Amino acid sequence: MPDRAPQTVERRLPTEEARELLALVRDIAEREIAPRAAEEEDAGRFPRELFSLLSSSGLLGLPYASEYGGGDQPYAVYLQVLEELAAARLTVGLGVSVHTLSCHALAGFGTEEQRTAHLPAMLGGGLLGAYCLSEPASGSDAASLRTKAVRKGDEWMLTGTKAWITHGGIADFCTVMARTGGEGPKGITAFLVPGDAEGLSAAAPERKMGMKGSPTAQLHFDGVRIPDARRIGEEGQGFAVALSALDSGRLGIAACAVGLAQAALDQAVEYARERRQFGRPIADFQGLRFLLADMATRIEAGRALYLEAARLRDEGRPFGRQAAMAKLFCTDAAMQVTTDAVQVLGGYGYTADFPVERYMREAKMLQIVEGTNQIQRMVIARHLVGPESR
């Protein structure tokens, strides 16, 4: 069977340009991404040439301003593009989300001179970004990071290790959070670091349960010298920059989760229609029909939730609580839907002959990245009842 049956998603898009954009994405997904997804994931191969195609097609800078090479698209449109890409192959959808996250600091907090100098190449010049916040000893507690940046004249010297970096070792640029002051969030500053900077090296990629085609690795900074012109924002502003990016990045993960879940549902529906037992398709059995109905309902609810958060963002309104809710709900839904898809296929679902076992392994990762779902619950609760007592 092909990696996924065609989706039948009804989308409300604001313009004819957006409809044409989604049609282009669907065409690329069906022709260039889905046919090779299973083989390349099994081989652990990252499709760098595909990201060059996405860049030349204008798909790596969609939510950013056209004056810097972006696509001027609302976030609600960009996220639906991510959903389509993730449905074809999560490595691709997640890769675009991480790249977009890596551009956020410069686009939102850089000077006009910095944006003019760097953003066009980052958004449409075939480059690939990485986002460097987590460290071996500071994952959820990101404010305790230890990578240091020491100022020496007009330069900064970065020393330390970043962990769980998507595109680690292959990225052309990295947005890096480093400690320039005292303890806590106010001592952190953001930097734009070239991927080929002297003193920057990558460890061997992590051996993961899923997403084998997407390299995840530690990055080591051994006295990496960065000019002050590559400092993003003010000194000590880096943690606020990071949190701003993560609010948007969580919506990217939510959209990817919905795309993955949709792909799993498509496979389950197709299989249920074709597989016959007791003289009729298994889709005739009420227990399985109800299972498919629950899967579809979770997907529609998740899509509505992430799109509502995106529309708040597009209107310039606060959306952090809704972003956390979307990331929490959509990734939990993807885990449940992909698990149920394996159940629909029975023994075949547990084999690599069908992609649902891969979808299930990939879904687990989405509950962890961009803030674990336990962290999302903490964020939501703080919006509801305030911070925890100390």
Explain what you see.
By secondary structure, the protein is α+β, with helices and mostly antiparallel strands. Helices cover 51% and strands 14% of the residues. It is built from ten helices and ten strands. It has helices at 16-43, 48-56, 75-88, 90-109, 112-124, 238-274, 286-314, 320-345, 356-366, 373-385, and strands at 129-132, 148-152, 155-166, 173-179, 188-194, 200-202, 216-227, 231-232, 276-277, 280-281. The strands form three sheets. Strands 1-4-5-8 form a four-stranded mixed β-sheet. A four-stranded antiparallel β-sheet has the order 2-3-7-6, with no helix packed on it. Helix 4 (90-109) runs antiparallel to helix 6 and helix 8 (320-345) runs antiparallel to helix 10. The longest helix is centred in the middle third of the chain and has 37 residues, at 238-274. It is globular. The N and C termini lie far apart (55 Å). The mean pLDDT is 95.
Shape: globular
Percentage of residues in strands:
5-15%
Helical content band:
40-55%
- In round numbers, the mean pLDDT is 95
* β-strand number: 10
Helix/strand-derived category reads: alpha+beta
Largest sheet: 4 strands, mixed
Q: Provide the succession of SSEs.
A: HHHHHEEEEEEEEHEEHHHH
The helix count comes to 10
> Between the first and last Cα atoms, what is the distance in angstroms?
55 Å
Round the Cα radius of gyration to an integer and report it: 21 Å
Physical arrangement of strands within the biggest beta sheet: 1-4-5-8
Uncertain ranges? none
